[in-house]
Every structure is written in C-alpha cells, then in structure tokens.
C-alpha cells in the first residue's frame, strides 16, 4: 500500500547518486556503455511473480564452502575432483545470470553495511544509514519513509509474502514491509505488519513481538486472527494451512534454530526453510487478484549469525541456503507463470577463510560429520568434567572421536570453545566477528535476468523487482 511522505528531501537522492557514479567511471566510453545498458533494461517486460532470495551474511567464500561440502557429501570417494560445477552442480549454478554487487550504505560513520541499510536498498532502491528500516534521514535530521516494492505490488493487487529463518521482524523482512528509524523497534515493526502492510504470508520467529498490544485492544496475534490470519506455530500446523493469510511464528523468542539443530533434533518442531518456501509459494499462488501473481521475500538469515559467532556450522547453514536456491530456480522454471528470481547476500559476515596456515587442506569430513552447532553443544557440554563424557558428547555430535588433553582442558573451562576446536580440526578460520565490506555475488533467473550479468549496486535489486512486476518506486 502507498506510504506517507514528509515534505523534506532525503540526504542523498539515489538517481542523482547513481548518475554521479556512472560519470566517475574511468573512460567516457565505459560510462556511456553503462548508461545505455541501464536505459535498455528500464524497458523490462513484466513477469507474473517476483521472488527476492537474500542469504544474510553470504559472500563468495560461503558459496565456495557449501560447494565443497556438497561435493564431499555427494561422492566422498571422488572428492575433491568432483567439485567442478559440471560434475556436482549446486543450487546457485542453476541461475541463468550472475554478477557482483556493491553493498555500501549512506552512513556518516560506517562504510560497511548492516542488514537494515542493505535490505532497504533491496526493497526501495535507496541508500540509507545503518539501522534504518524502510526510510532515509532527511536533510533536517528527520526520518522519511520510502515506498517498498512489496507495498507497491500489494497496492496493484499482487499477493505478498515474507519468509525468514530469523525473527519475523528482523531487519531483512522488515525493510520490505515496515518503516522505523531504528531496526531494534521490533514491536512497532510487528504492528505495521498486522495493522498496515498485511502481507498474505508471514513466516519466521519471535512470537513475543506479536504479543504486544494492538491499537484496538488485545494483542497483535489477536488482531491478526481478526484480520483472517491462520496462526501456525509448528511445521505440522503450517503444513495444515490451506488458505492465506497465514502468520507463522515458530519460536517464542529469537530466531529459528540453526539448520543442523533443526534437522538433527527429533524434538524440534520448527519447519526447515525449504518447507516454508513450499508453503509460501503454494499459498501465495491462491491469494491476491486472480489476474496478478505474487511478490515473495525469502531470507536465509542465520548464515550471518553463524559468521558473527564464528561458528564452523556457518558452512552447513550456507549448504541449506544453497539447496533452497536450487529449489527456487526449479519453481521458477516449472511454474506456468513467468517468474523473476534474484538472489544475493546483503553483506559477507565473519571473513570466512577456507584453509588456515599450512598444510593447504580443509577437512570437509569434519564439517560433514557435524550434527549440532556450538549453540547446542555448549549447553550439552556445560558442567561436564569427565574427559570420557566430554569425548562421548563431542563424538556423538561432531564425529571427532578423540580429544587432545589441551582440547579437554579448553572444553572444561569454556564449553563454547568447541567452535575453535572444530575450526582448527576442519582447517577453516574467521577474520572478524562482524560484517566485511567486500562485494557479494548476485544471481538472477527468469525474464530479464541478464541485467545481472555485470557489476551492480544493491539498489539494482529493487529496480529489477519493480520492473518485473510492472510497478514503480
């Protein structure tokens, strides 16, 4: 739906900024070619559906790590000679177009983006400061809302959806369907979802945000029910939903569990990302104007969290994200309606390296054997003093069958040091517990995907999504 605007102007106009950037490219011929290509792409023919798939924290190294892990799991006897995309393709190899993307924010203090500024660029095509959701700082220091592609699509009769493995109100989904000065105001984000934007599908974590008071009394969960939403809290309940709208909240607090912990804990009731995607596209296909399609934002959000924590399980989290990339391409290719799909990372997180010191080796058998993240292992190991018991727990969840005396001592003192032990055993390392400013890969498939066979800025995602659906920003 349309969003209100203040009378003040943003501090940086995106069109002006990009024009200046083009003019600064060395060589007039290069700049001219870039501008000609951009004009040609502005005439993109609409698709019926548009899907944005954001893997939070994904850089090229994460993609490479998942490629190697996939090849090892597929045919360990052939590894590493089977890593070639021709022999063991991954989900991202299925995209028809690929390029690179810059990620910087419009922030007076930081040149490396956070997820809020990046997602606002993806959703609205504008640069903003770190922490801003769906808006920019005005020249007078105020906050100005900016329309999002989800809101524009909804106003034109498209069904809309948000799917994430993070809190439902976390930065990436929020930037498509809410407007707040500070990403931390998550109860206000939840209120805007339910009372204003009203996507047809909302799937994620942290029910707590939706237990806040609604404007007309009761909680936001109550208001959602009054607005016709089915509430789902488990994978089984989501599977039973036949019609939109649906509000799926699969944790009381915080995010969905990491992939390994969801997959390998028989008592875990949360859906995996592939199941949420299946449900989302099925439900959206029957929602909205019958003459229109849908817009869907999908986020694999915990690659970022594993990077911040320096968890070796970041590789497994990326493995799930890569599988879902292939699932989305398959949907785009098999559905009767033309579907535009774009996927990228909002930034890289953790500075993952494949290899540490020498020898030049990564032990993918260690990564493949891991069945639980540090998050779960830390709880299992807490308070355990016996070396035999420590070894038993570690072996059951990581495949490491013998610990050194040094490793036993570390685990007794700090159970979370299992991350360091696994990283050392696997031969991987992290250079930071924060984001890095490197360019990230971008992939596209479907109508006019070739616009991403080049170097682009992250604002190009919004332009492409809007063009695909025939809406303006």
TrEMBL record:
Keyword Metal-binding listed: yes
Protein EC: 3.1.3.1
Residues that hold Mg(2+) 1 according to the record: 45, 47, 158, 291
Start and end residues of each stretch annotated as Disordered: 82-106
Binding residue positions for Zn(2+) 2: 304, 308, 435
Amino-acid positions noted as binding Mg(2+) 2 in the UniProt annotation, renumbered to this chain: 56, 172, 299
Top-tier EC class: hydrolase
UniProt binding sites for Mg(2+) 5: 361, 363
SUPFAM superfamilies listed in its UniProt record: Alkaline phosphatase-like (SSF53649)
Sample GO molecular function, one term: alkaline phosphatase activity
PROSITE patterns: TAT (PS51318)
Keyword flag Methyltransferase: no
UniProt-annotated binding residues for Mg(2+) 3: 282, 285
Cross-referenced InterPro entries: Alkaline_phosphatase (IPR001952), Alkaline_phosphatase_core_sf (IPR017850), TAT_signal (IPR006311)
Sites where the protein binds Mg(2+) 4: 358, 433
CDD domains: ALP
Chain positions recorded as Zn(2+) 1 binding sites: 56, 304, 346-347
Alphabetical keyword list: Hydrolase, Metal-binding, Phosphoprotein, Plasmid, Zinc
PANTHER family: ALKALINE PHOSPHATASE
Protein name: Alkaline phosphatase
Organism field: Halobacterium salinarum (strain ATCC 29341 / DSM 671 / R1)
